[in-house]
Amino acid sequence: MSKTARKILIVDDEKNICNVLRRIIQSNGYLVKAVSDSNEALNVVAKFHPDLMILDIVMPGINGRDVCSIVRHLSSDTKIIYFTAKVDADREKSREMVREADGFIRKPASSKKILSEIESVLNSHAIKMSTVAG
Amino acid sequence: MTDNVNIQIKDKIADDGPSFPANSAPLERLLESCHEQNRVLTISNEQLKKTISILTQDNGQFSENESGKVSPKDRIKDSIFITDMKGIILECNSETSTLLGYAPAELKGKALSAIASPEERRQIASNLKNITANEDTHLEIKAIRKDGSAIYLEMLAQIMVSANGRIRLTARDVTKLTRIREQIQQNRALTSLGKMMAGIAHEVNNPLGSILLYSEILINCDDPTQSKKDLKVIHSEAKRAARVLSSLLTYSRTMDFRTKRVDVNSIVRKALSMRQYAHKVGNVTCLTNMPDTTLNIAGSIPQLNQVIINILLNAEEVLKHQNGGRILVNTKSEDGKAVISIADDGHGIPEEHLEQIFYPFFTTKPAGTSAGLGLSACHGIITTLGGVIYAENNTMGGATFIIKLPLWRKNE
Question: What is the pLDDT of residues A45-63, one digit of tens each?
Answer without folding.
Answer: 999 999 999 999 988 888 8
